From TrEMBL:
EC number: 2.7.2.11
Record-listed ATP binding positions: K16, S175, D176, T217, G218, G219, M220, A221, T222, K223
Name the UniProt record assigns to this protein: Glutamate 5-kinase
Pathway where this protein functions: Amino-acid biosynthesis; L-proline biosynthesis; L-glutamate 5-semialdehyde from L-glutamate: step 1/2
SUPFAM superfamilies: Carbamate kinase-like, PUA domain-like
Gene (UniProt): proB
General function of this protein: Catalyzes the transfer of a phosphate group to glutamate to form L-glutamate 5-phosphate.
GO cellular component: cytosol
Keywords, ordered alphabetically: Amino-acid biosynthesis, ATP-binding, Cytoplasm, Kinase, Nucleotide-binding, Proline biosynthesis, Transferase
Organism for this UniProt entry: Geodermatophilus telluris
Amino acid sequence: MTARPEVAAAGRVVVKVGSSSLTTLPGGLDAARLSALVDVLAGVRAQGREVVLVSSGAIAAGLAPLGVVGRPRDLATAQAAASVGQLRLVQTYADAFDRHGVTIGQVLLTADDLTRRSHYRNARQTLERLLTLGALPIVNENDTVATEEIRFGDNDRLAALVAHVARADALLLLSDVDGVYDGDPRQGPARLLDTVRDPADLGAVTLGTARRNGVGTGGMATKVEAALIAAHAGVPVVVTSTGQAAAALAGEAVGTRFAVMGPRPRTRQFWLRFATRPRGRLLLDDGAVRAVRERGASLLAAGITGVAGEFLADDPVELVGPDGVVVARGLVAYDARELPPLLGRRTAELEPEYRREIVHRDEMVLVRRPSLG
C-alpha cells in the first residue's frame, strides 16, 4: 500500500513545473532536464493515467537566442523573449514526447481566459477534448500578450485553476525545493512538513522564496497559496522537487502533501471565488453582513453604505463589512455609476424598473476567513 493512495490512484493529474527546473539564465532551455521530466510523465501515461502539464519557461528560453542578458526590465522585451521562447519550449517538448509516441497540444491562457465565464468554459472544453483524443495538453500563460505582472515561472496559481478546470484528481507542484519547510533550510535547521490538513498548520511557518537560478520568481509562498486553493476545491496536492516527480506520482511520501480541505465546489462557485478579479467593492452595514453570511440572503440596496471602483453590470465585486473584511464575492446587477442613488433605500422605495437584488445569492460566494481569493 502506498503512503498517499489518493495520488497514486489519480486517473487525471495536473503537473506544474517552473522555469528554474527547466532553464538556466546563461544557457536558456536545458533539454536534458526537460527530457527527464518527459520520461516520467510518459511513464504515467503508459499506466493509463491522463496528464495535463502546466509549464513555465517560455521567457527564460527566449533570452539566450535573443542575446538578452539577465531578466528583462521592460514589458516589450519580456514579451519578445516569450514569443521566441514559447516556440523553442513547445518544440522541445514535442520532440521529447514524440519519442514516447505521445502527441501534445499547446494551450496558452491569459488571466482573462479564466476570469470570464465564457472563456473559462471554453478552456475546459478544449482541455477535455484534447484528453479525450489522447493528447497531452501543455498549458502556459500567454506571456506574449499578457500586460500585468509578467513573471518567470510563477504559474502556480494558474496550475491550481487548471486543476479545477480539467477536473483533475491530483495536482503536483514541482520546483527545485523538496517541499514546504517550517523555516528556510538555507539558513539553518528546518523541518520538512509531511502533510498540511488545514491552513492553521502553516501558522508557525515562515514562507520564503524558493532557491533560484535567476530565471524563476515563483517562491514557496505562491506554491502554498496554489496548494490551498486546490485543496479547498477538493483536489489533493503534493509540493516537491522536480527530481522526485516519479516518486510523488507513485504515491510515495516525498515532499509536502496538502490534504483535501473541502468538497469539490460547483464550477460557478469556484470560478467566483478563485478565478475572478474583483472590479470594485460594495460596502455593507452590519445587518447586510449578517444577512449575507448567516442567512444566505441576496444583497439588497438597503444594506449598502458605499461603492468603490469602476465596474459594469455583471462584473465581479467584493462585498466588504464595516470592519474592512471581505464577506463575499459576487456579480453585481448595476454599473457603479447607477448605484449611488439606490444606496440605503428599501426595496419598496425603488421604482419598478429597478432589479430588487443588487447581488443575487445565486451569483455570490462567501469568502471564508482567512481569505484565499
